[in-house]
Amino acid sequence: MRIIFIFIWTQILTQTNGQSCEGRCGQTLSGCSCLSSCRRLGSCCSDLDQFCLEISPHSGSVLGGSDFRILHVRFNSSSTLRCRFKSQIETWGYVEADGVGHCVAPMLFETGFVPFEVSVDKGPYSRSGRWLSVHHSKLSVGLKLLLVNGTQWQYYGTPGVGGILMMVWNSSLINSDKVNVELWGYDEPGEPYSEHWSTQWTYLYTVGRNVTNNGAFSFTPKRSEKPWSNWHMGSMRLSPNTVADGQCNVNSVWSGAHALAYHLEVEFSRDSMGWAFENCVKWDKEEKRIPNFLPELMDCPCTLAQARADTGRFHTDYGCDIEKGSVCTYHPGAVHCVRGIQASPQYGAGQQCCYDRTGAQILTGDSIGGSTPDRGHDWGAPPYLRPPRVPGLSHWKYDVISFYYCCLWSENCHYYFTHRPSSDCRTYRPPRAASVLGDPHFMTFDGVSYTFNGKGEYTLLHSEHFNLTVQGRTALLTARNGSAIMATRLSSVAMKEKDSDVIEVRLSDWPNHLQVLMNQEELSFSEQSWIDLKGVFVFSAVPQNVTVMFASGAGLEFRGQGEAMTLTVLLPQDFSNQTVGLLGKMNDQAADDLTEPDGTVTCNANASAQDIYAFAVAWAISNESSLFTYDSEFLLKEYYFSPKHDPSFIPIFSVTEDPSDPLLGPALELCSGEGFHFCKYDTLISRSLELGNQTLLSYRRYTIIQQDLEPVVSCGWLATPNQGQKEGTLYLTGSNVNFSCNHGYRLHGAEQRVCLSNGRWSGEQTHCIQDDVVAVVLGSLGAVLTLVALISAMLIYSRKQKRQRMKETEGQVVYQSHSL
User: Fold this and answer.
1) pLDDT over 70 for what percent of the chain?
2) Model pTM score
3) DSSP sequence for 668-686
4) 432-636 belongs to which homologous superfamily?
5) Burial of 272 (0-12, 13-18, 19+ CB in 10 A)
6) Closest CA to 565 of 636, 651, 477, 629
């Protein structure tokens, strides 16, 4: 199919002589003269006769209500539009006087790209596009309803908390001069993990009617009565005052999910702790009845450095982010938390790990600020629509509102932590890292470093077991004056795992900026930094950095570095003995890292640059196996219609250090320390200190990642003895934990325990025993010993008496016999 696209495309390019396609990307393929502008090759349209609609904005809340414009298409102003999402959910659109069409996104309960179609005047659905549904915590601030002073909202009615509540929003998001403010409640009724388990999103009542759409509203809450007060969590919604109360799938803006403290019945405000404790106990009983999800979860990283470096399996928890200076409201004492990216396979559960300012993990056994796993992964899990996999809302239902019951509205956290204990790191194994940087230089998973300057497209990594393929494209380096340099750089990487979307990251025309493509269509991160895709997640907070995360836990980090792109690949230990390619075999055997596809091994210990070159050339891909996008005449000519490895390009294998070279001195001064040979090579061959410095920085970053991912040994959490104290909450090799007992109690066991290198604690388990009990025990023991002594003395005396009688009897017998 790709070849057919390319053939048609090249014919059009030839026929149109590069005519401009600006403003025509809504047209069909046959009417579009410049496919590189329209990005039609492998577009989101499955049928060439369909339109591929571009929209703005292209993303919005999973709860729906976003009004988006259809670009590059003009409709009749009198026409009516119908918009259908996922071929089943219909919403009404409209056309402005200038012919611009609009659709309204529905409530979807799932994240990621969702296909939609448009019908004009009740005609067929002949135009299609895609809409990005985003979790409310990942949505841009300007696209949602914000609750001012969220703490007041969620504690409203507890002692000392009341008054006026305020919300603010971007008034342009609602196409009306007046709005209604509505409260909606969420629940997941039915038997958990049964076919009758469902989601329920219900309009409760209107808080404010005919409110001026000026971006702010405040109100004083009134207590609800049953049945409305039975809804303990939900969201606020703004919608035009012209639509009916509670009407679904209309233009609206939502707040994030939150606890409805301001709405709960009078009993809550009269005795909030008693009310919350009663609900905490109900939750506790329910948790004991339903399946335990904890054994499914992977352990947390042992240190903050490991957690931040393991980007294939863990990502920043938006509620506690050290980069943004979060206060970590739900985890006092923590400076940063991460969440496991992938939900557990059977139950859709999630892992959370929190760390203090020293980089140590915080456990709930030691602090209320400890990390807690989740029955419902906060980011949801495919297939999303069923509990407990609904993004955000399932997590609130099973993990957050229960935290309010047991910990925030009452003082019964021990109930909560019984079912949500922190995971320690005894079974955590950090991933292995490999890298490609600079001109380009390769660092394999087993620590082999080499330089390969071939021009073409090659297999960087392939795992048959995980069906993961990563391909790299190299391009010529150019000098500042535009002349070619006899060396190459990594310019694009394409990747796929199993049936996931194909992701390609490549250098853009903007300096240091990276372009991301999904199935050959460009992704935009202008409205959000995190995108959920099929079998893969992509994160890009700034244009210079991109992280790609696959379901296997494989992570790929990209950085734009001037003319070159730096790639770091992180693989879990499960990939051991499962990789081939230019990044080597991950098996702790450096000797076989330079293995060709046919099994030929180049000994890296004494390999020349030419030997390494011959090994790497063997990993050139084919057009049939290529994952790359060829969306320009240059790429077609240079890579698709040319050999995948360009044999006509012979790079410079080594550089001469000429003492008369004015650049040699500065190069040697710059390139000192570890990685100096890569820095020196790139500086001299490119005649650029800037490129050499970028290579040096990239290499240092790689070594820091290697250091952060060094394995550490944990001996596991130690409990504080009853009626005692514990000093020390570090449980890694060399850590000391000291114990003492309260007044009136005596220590039994080790006063200090040390975490040994074998993962075991020194000494015996510690207990605190009451002094009176010791006295009673000792007194009882003394009485027993005295009794035993008396009995022993009596037995000895009895034996002596018996022996004496026997002797006397024997004497009498002898005397009598002599008398006969």
Assistant:
1) 88
2) 0.87
3) HHHS-STTHHHHHHHHHHH
4) Mog1/PsbP, alpha/beta/alpha sandwich (3.40.1000.10)
5) buried
6) 477
